[in-house]
Amino acid sequence: xxALFKIKFNESRWLKVLPLCLLSLGLSACSGGDGDDLDxxxxxxxxxxxxxxxxLPEVKPYLALQYNADGxxxxxxxxxxxxxxxxxxxxxxxxxxxxxxxxPLESIKYVGMLSKSKLTYALLKTPDNSVQQVKLGNFxxxxxxxxxxxxxxxxxxxxxxxxxxxxxxxxxxxNLTLQE
Length: 180
Description:
The chain is α+β, with helices and mostly antiparallel strands.
Protein backbone atom coordinates (compact mmCIF):
# COMPACT_ATOMS: atom_id res chain seq x y z
CA UNK A 1 0.00 0.00 0.00
CA UNK A 2 2.83 2.33 0.70
CA ALA A 3 4.15 1.84 -2.82
CA LEU A 4 0.73 2.66 -4.25
CA PHE A 5 0.57 5.84 -2.20
CA LYS A 6 3.98 6.93 -3.48
CA ILE A 7 2.87 6.49 -7.11
CA LYS A 8 -0.24 8.57 -6.57
CA PHE A 9 1.77 11.25 -4.78
CA ASN A 10 4.26 11.40 -7.65
CA GLU A 11 1.47 11.70 -10.25
CA SER A 12 -0.14 14.61 -8.46
CA ARG A 13 3.25 16.31 -8.23
CA TRP A 14 3.76 15.88 -11.96
CA LEU A 15 0.32 17.31 -12.62
CA LYS A 16 1.33 20.47 -10.73
CA VAL A 17 4.77 20.85 -12.35
CA LEU A 18 3.75 20.01 -15.95
CA PRO A 19 1.84 23.29 -16.67
CA LEU A 20 4.74 25.34 -15.32
CA CYS A 21 7.15 23.54 -17.60
CA LEU A 22 4.92 24.03 -20.64
CA LEU A 23 4.52 27.74 -19.83
CA SER A 24 8.27 28.33 -19.48
CA LEU A 25 8.91 26.41 -22.72
CA GLY A 26 6.34 28.57 -24.56
CA LEU A 27 7.76 31.82 -23.22
CA SER A 28 11.31 30.90 -24.14
CA ALA A 29 10.18 30.10 -27.70
CA CYS A 30 8.63 33.61 -28.10
CA SER A 31 11.70 35.53 -27.02
CA GLY A 32 14.81 36.11 -29.01
CA GLY A 33 15.98 37.37 -32.34
CA ASP A 34 15.70 40.83 -33.85
CA GLY A 35 11.92 40.61 -33.99
CA ASP A 36 9.66 40.71 -36.95
CA ASP A 37 8.96 43.44 -39.51
CA LEU A 38 6.48 45.23 -37.17
CA ASP A 39 9.23 45.86 -34.61
CA UNK A 40 11.53 47.12 -37.37
CA UNK A 41 8.80 49.49 -38.67
CA UNK A 42 8.23 50.89 -35.19
CA UNK A 43 11.96 51.58 -34.76
CA UNK A 44 12.34 53.23 -38.20
CA UNK A 45 9.08 55.23 -38.20
CA UNK A 46 10.39 57.96 -35.90
CA UNK A 47 13.40 58.64 -38.20
CA UNK A 48 11.22 59.70 -41.15
CA UNK A 49 8.87 61.98 -39.22
CA UNK A 50 9.52 65.72 -39.09
CA UNK A 51 7.08 68.17 -37.54
CA UNK A 52 5.60 70.70 -39.95
CA UNK A 53 5.37 74.00 -38.08
CA UNK A 54 4.41 77.18 -39.91
CA UNK A 55 6.68 80.10 -39.22
CA LEU A 56 5.34 82.85 -36.99
CA PRO A 57 3.81 85.80 -38.85
CA GLU A 58 5.86 88.94 -39.05
CA VAL A 59 4.90 91.48 -36.42
CA LYS A 60 4.17 94.82 -38.05
CA PRO A 61 5.05 97.92 -36.07
CA TYR A 62 2.16 99.99 -34.71
CA LEU A 63 1.77 103.39 -36.35
CA ALA A 64 -0.14 105.90 -34.26
CA LEU A 65 -2.29 108.29 -36.28
CA GLN A 66 -2.52 111.92 -35.34
CA TYR A 67 -5.96 113.42 -34.78
CA ASN A 68 -6.78 116.09 -37.35
CA ALA A 69 -7.89 119.05 -35.27
CA ASP A 70 -8.68 121.39 -38.15
CA GLY A 71 -12.38 121.26 -37.30
CA UNK A 72 -13.59 118.97 -40.09
CA UNK A 73 -13.83 115.94 -37.87
CA UNK A 74 -15.75 115.64 -34.63
CA UNK A 75 -13.54 114.60 -31.72
CA UNK A 76 -15.01 111.25 -30.58
CA UNK A 77 -13.82 111.80 -27.00
CA UNK A 78 -15.27 115.24 -26.42
CA UNK A 79 -18.77 115.48 -24.92
CA UNK A 80 -21.57 116.75 -27.10
CA UNK A 81 -21.85 120.46 -27.20
CA UNK A 82 -24.78 121.63 -25.17
CA UNK A 83 -26.64 124.34 -26.98
CA UNK A 84 -27.26 127.40 -24.88
CA UNK A 85 -29.83 128.80 -27.24
CA UNK A 86 -33.42 127.86 -26.66
CA UNK A 87 -34.94 126.27 -29.75
CA UNK A 88 -38.53 125.50 -30.48
CA UNK A 89 -37.73 121.79 -30.83
CA UNK A 90 -36.13 121.27 -27.43
CA UNK A 91 -37.93 118.45 -25.57
CA UNK A 92 -39.36 118.84 -22.11
CA UNK A 93 -36.77 117.01 -20.03
CA UNK A 94 -38.71 117.52 -16.78
CA UNK A 95 -41.91 115.72 -17.79
CA UNK A 96 -42.48 112.20 -16.39
CA UNK A 97 -41.46 109.43 -18.79
CA UNK A 98 -44.08 107.09 -20.20
CA UNK A 99 -43.56 103.28 -20.01
CA UNK A 100 -43.03 102.86 -23.77
CA UNK A 101 -40.10 105.33 -23.71
CA UNK A 102 -37.96 102.69 -21.98
CA UNK A 103 -37.61 100.67 -25.22
CA PRO A 104 -35.64 101.60 -28.35
CA LEU A 105 -37.95 102.26 -31.31
CA GLU A 106 -36.26 99.47 -33.31
CA SER A 107 -37.32 96.86 -30.75
CA ILE A 108 -41.02 97.84 -30.70
CA LYS A 109 -43.39 96.15 -33.18
CA TYR A 110 -46.75 97.51 -34.34
CA VAL A 111 -49.11 94.50 -34.23
CA GLY A 112 -52.63 95.88 -34.40
CA MET A 113 -55.15 98.70 -34.08
CA LEU A 114 -58.32 99.12 -32.00
CA SER A 115 -61.04 101.75 -32.33
CA LYS A 116 -63.38 102.67 -29.47
CA SER A 117 -65.96 105.35 -30.12
CA LYS A 118 -63.81 108.20 -31.51
CA LEU A 119 -60.49 107.04 -30.06
CA THR A 120 -57.97 104.96 -31.99
CA TYR A 121 -55.47 102.80 -30.11
CA ALA A 122 -52.38 101.09 -31.50
CA LEU A 123 -51.20 97.76 -30.08
CA LEU A 124 -47.43 97.58 -29.68
CA LYS A 125 -45.40 94.48 -28.83
CA THR A 126 -42.42 95.16 -26.58
CA PRO A 127 -39.16 93.14 -26.45
CA ASP A 128 -40.41 91.30 -23.35
CA ASN A 129 -43.39 90.03 -25.45
CA SER A 130 -46.07 92.07 -23.70
CA VAL A 131 -48.62 94.03 -25.72
CA GLN A 132 -49.15 97.69 -24.80
CA GLN A 133 -51.90 100.01 -25.94
CA VAL A 134 -51.05 103.61 -27.02
CA LYS A 135 -53.00 106.49 -28.55
CA LEU A 136 -52.34 109.81 -30.27
CA GLY A 137 -50.19 112.07 -28.11
CA ASN A 138 -48.35 109.26 -26.30
CA PHE A 139 -44.56 109.08 -26.37
CA UNK A 140 -42.67 105.95 -27.46
CA UNK A 141 -39.00 105.20 -28.09
CA UNK A 142 -35.93 106.74 -26.54
CA UNK A 143 -35.83 109.83 -28.80
CA UNK A 144 -38.94 111.61 -27.44
CA UNK A 145 -41.12 110.08 -30.18
CA UNK A 146 -44.60 111.66 -30.13
CA UNK A 147 -47.36 109.69 -31.90
CA UNK A 148 -48.96 111.99 -34.49
CA UNK A 149 -50.94 109.55 -36.64
CA UNK A 150 -52.28 105.99 -36.34
CA UNK A 151 -53.52 104.11 -39.42
CA UNK A 152 -54.21 100.44 -40.04
CA UNK A 153 -50.78 100.05 -41.72
CA UNK A 154 -48.46 102.36 -39.76
CA UNK A 155 -47.83 104.68 -36.83
CA UNK A 156 -46.25 108.06 -37.63
CA UNK A 157 -43.98 109.62 -34.98
CA UNK A 158 -42.30 112.97 -34.56
CA UNK A 159 -38.96 112.40 -32.81
CA UNK A 160 -36.70 115.07 -31.35
CA UNK A 161 -32.99 114.26 -31.56
CA UNK A 162 -29.85 116.25 -30.90
CA UNK A 163 -27.73 117.13 -33.94
CA UNK A 164 -24.23 115.66 -33.60
CA UNK A 165 -22.37 118.62 -35.06
CA UNK A 166 -24.21 121.65 -33.76
CA UNK A 167 -25.82 120.21 -30.63
CA UNK A 168 -29.21 121.74 -31.57
CA UNK A 169 -32.44 119.77 -31.19
CA UNK A 170 -34.03 118.84 -34.52
CA UNK A 171 -37.24 117.07 -35.48
CA UNK A 172 -37.41 113.99 -37.64
CA UNK A 173 -40.32 111.86 -38.77
CA UNK A 174 -40.24 108.12 -38.12
CA ASN A 175 -42.79 105.38 -38.53
CA LEU A 176 -43.60 101.89 -37.37
CA THR A 177 -45.19 99.64 -39.97
CA LEU A 178 -47.65 96.89 -39.16
CA GLN A 179 -45.96 93.52 -38.51
CA GLU A 180 -48.00 90.52 -39.54
